[in-house]
Structure formats: structure tokens, C-alpha cells
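Thread amino acids onto this structure.
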């Protein structure tokens, strides 16, 4: 199966290449050095990466995984300052975050497309002592060739969603050898461990917890000054990391709720900032007074809605908000987004009935009465009205949310211990 993958993957990649180019053009983030994905490194970059031989190679695919990986990287360096690290990501947005937030001395680069000759090119430059991959970014050539080079390979903060496990089991003959190649797999929950073992019984999987529970926001985190857009004396409702078609439901619920709560203001942060034009058309059609954050026009007075079509500001908007609507949980969406961040900040959180990809965190908040989960889209207006009109209720719900996530911290220490137990992690 691996042989077939190596033969056919280049052709499959070429088929999807036009779509990749379109995404690259449309999406924000750091695009400089993107050709590193195809093995093209400048002389300066080659020199920098070659100087990191023996480093631990940490890989995270996109923004969420990158932030988790950075939290582990910073703590690992603090505890073991003699280690050397390189850090790769796949997307332009995650690359931007990595370049801005990695500790001094860590080299950042784009992960190569999973073709043997491209992976080997990176391995020859860096000669890593270990490869640490976050969550489920499992590329066979990357894993197997790194293993063959003599480095240890690890998968950490790993999970298998309901959707993923079906595919992994269906193609067990393909995934089992790759999963068995990992020296250790640190999984989020016991259910994840069982799922990995059901695909690859020889996999060395251990429960280390979810690192996202350890990701406390910086003490000096500054929120967005929403008064600039809304004036004084308002209650902010944040639609957080949204997807179609739930934005229309959220907007309509806001418009209905503000008839009873005139202080209510609306902020919408789409999961993909490039959808700004699409959402602006929706806002225009509704008749709501709005301002687009990327607009170059002057504000011209206060508005009732802010379209935050920017990248990298979500956590600052969460910091400034009174009520958080979790995206990808309404209007037929049920996979969810990271609920831990707003909970750690003690925010009042509303979700739809399910968050399949964040079940552990969701269940923790439900158990601790730290989230308001509505069972039908039609209940959203009443939920928003209830919370907008009761500051004490918002305070209590937020405190319970924060307490619930704090009880699940500790995964960072367990994960670093798992990695350090293997002496090949040393630079």
C-alpha cells in the first residue's frame, strides 16, 4: 500500500494543485518562502537550516495545531535550554504565526509536500534527531523516511475524530504500518488510544491529555477596543470562527434579540478571512449598520456590527467579548471549534448541541455547567436574550467554564516527559 501511495501521490497532488494555488492567492499569511514546500530554499535558508543539524523537528499543519505546538516548544525550551529545534507548518497563516512567536534560535520553514525526494532534501539539511508531529498530520513519506534516517518519530496531542476513525479503519492496511512506525504516540483521551490501537494494534500509544487545556492566554493579552466601533455602554456578542450557513442564523438571532436588548452589538469573525466579501453582502442585505475591519474607509460613527475579516486577532476579540457563539456548531454544523480558549478567559459560551471534534472539552464544560448548549437553532434567540439581559448569569457561567478547563490541565508536562524519556530527543 505504501508503494502504491508513493507511485500515485504525485499524480493526485498535481490534480489538486490548481485549487492549492487559488487558496494560496486568496488566503492571508506569510507567503514568502512558500516554494520551500517544493524543495526550493534560498542559499540563506539552506545555511540557516543546515546549521540546525541534530535538532528536534516539530511540525504542525495549521493555526490551531501551531499554537498548541508553540506552547509545548516554549515550555520544552524553558526546561531543556540545551535542545535545538526547527519548526515547520503547512499553511501560510500558521507560518505567519510561527515566524512571529517562535523563541529565539528556532528556525521556521514550510513543510515539504509528501514526496520522497522533497522530504529527503529537508532531512539532508537538518538531520533531525527527532520528529514531533501534532494531532493527526500523518504523511507516510515524512514519517517513514525520517524514521529510516535514524531519528525518532513521535505523534503528540493525537486524536481521531468520529469521521477520521472510519477512514483509518477502512484503509487499515495503509495506515497501520505508518502508525506502528511512531516510537510513541501521545493521545488526548482513552477513547483516542483505543481508536489508534484498533487501526494499529502494535502502536505505542499512551494517554497524555489535551495540551489545549494548558494554553492559558498571556497575562498581558490586550483585547480589541470595541468601543471604537460601538460607542459606550454595550454588550458584545461574538460569532467565533464561523462557517456557512450558520452566519445567517447568528445574524438573524442577533437582530431579533436586540429588539429586547438594544445595547447588544455583534462581532462576526469567520473561520476563513477570505470570505469577507461574501459576508459583507449578507450584512448589506440585512440592513444592519456595520463596519468591515479590513475597510480603508473611515468609520464615520458607531455601528451595530463589526465584520472582523482579519487573521490572527480571534483571541483578542474573545478577550473583549461578553458572549461567545461557537462557530461550526449551528445550522447543521456539528464539528465545533476550540472551546477551551474562551473558557480559559472566563467567557460566557453558547454552542449548538454537538461538537464532535472537541468532545472532551465540550463534555468537561457540560459537566461543570460552564457552557450553554442549545438543542435547536430556534432556541438561539432566547438564549442570547437571556444572557444579554443578565450580567450575573454571564459572570457565573464564565467562572464555571474557567474552573472546568483548569481541572484538565497537565498535558504539557506529561507530553514533554514522554518525549524526554527517549534519549534521541537530545540535540
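Threaded sequence (427 positions):
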Amino acid at each position: 500500500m505504501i508503494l502504491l501511495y508513493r507511485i500515485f501521490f504525485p499524480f493526485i497532488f498535481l490534480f489538486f494543485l490548481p485549487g492549492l494555488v487559488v487558496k494560496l492567492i486568496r488566503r492571508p499569511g506569510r507567503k514568502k518562502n512558500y516554494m520551500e514546500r517544493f524543495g526550493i530554499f534560498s542559499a540563506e535558508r539552506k545555511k540557516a537550516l543546515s546549521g540546525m543539524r541534530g535538532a528536534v523537528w516539530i511540525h504542525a499543519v495549521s493555526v490551531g495545531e501551531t499554537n498548541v505546538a508553540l506552547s509545548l516548544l516554549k515550555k520544552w525550551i524553558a526546561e531543556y535550554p540545551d535542545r535545538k529545534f526547527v519548526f515547520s507548518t503547512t499553511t501560510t497563516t500558521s507560518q505567519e504565526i510561527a515566524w512571529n512567536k517562535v523563541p529565539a534560535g528556532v528556525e521556521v520553514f514550510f513543510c515539504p509536500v509528501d514526496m520522497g525526494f522533497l522530504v529527503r532534501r529537508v532531512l539532508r539539511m537538518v538531520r533531525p534527531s527527532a520528529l514531533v508531529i501534532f494531532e493527526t498530520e500523518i504523511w507516510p513519506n515524512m514519517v517513514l523516511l525520517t524514521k529510516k534516517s535514524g531519528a525518532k518519530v513521535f505523534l503528540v496531542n493525537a486524536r481521531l475524530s468520529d469521521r477520521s476513525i472510519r477512514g483509518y479503519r477502512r484503509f487499515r492496511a495503509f495506515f497501520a504500518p505508518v502508525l506502528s512506525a511512531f516510537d510513541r504516540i501521545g493521545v488526548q483521551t482513552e477513547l483516542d488510544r483505543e481508536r489508534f490501537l484498533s487501526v494499529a494494534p502494535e502502536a505505542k500509544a499512551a494517554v497524555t491529555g489535551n495540551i489545549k487545556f494548558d494554553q492559558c492566554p498571556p497575562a498581558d493579552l490586550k483585547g480589541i477596543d470595541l468601543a471604537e466601533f460601538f460607542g459606550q455602554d454595550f454588550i458584545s456578542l461574538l460569532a467565533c470562527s464561523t462557517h456557512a450557513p450558520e452566519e445567517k442564523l447568528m445574524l438573524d438571532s442577533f437582530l431579533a434579540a436586540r429588539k429586547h436588548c438594544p445595547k447588544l452589538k455583534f462581532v462576526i469573525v469567520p473561520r476563513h478571512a477570505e470570505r469577507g466579501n461574501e459576508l459583507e453582502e449578507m450584512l448589506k442585505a440585512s440592513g444592519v449598520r456595520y463596519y468591515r475591519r479590513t475597510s480603508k474607509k473611515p468609520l464615520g460613527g458607531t455601528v451595530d456590527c463589526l465584520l472582523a475579516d482579519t487573521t490572527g486577532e480571534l483571541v483578542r476579540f474573545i478577550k473583549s467579548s461578553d458572549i461567545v457563539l461557537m462557530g461550526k456548531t449551528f445550522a447543521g454544523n456539528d464539528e465545533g471549534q476550540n472551546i477551551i480558549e474562551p473558557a480559559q478567559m472566563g467567557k460566557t459560551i453558547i454552542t449548538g448541541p454537538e461538537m464532535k471534534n472537541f468532545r472532551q472539552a465540550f463534555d468537561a464544560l457540560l459537566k461543570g455547567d460552564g457552557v450553554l448548549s442549545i438543542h435547536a437553532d430556534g432556541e438561539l434567540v432566547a438564549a442570547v436574550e437571556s444572557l444579554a439581559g443578565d450580567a450575573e448569569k454571564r459572570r457565573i457561567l464564565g467562572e464555571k467554564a474557567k474552573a472546568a478547563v483548569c481541572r484538565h490541565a497537565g498535558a504539557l508536562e506529561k507530553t514533554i516527559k514522554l518525549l524526554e524519556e527517549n534519549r534521541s530527543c537530545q540535540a
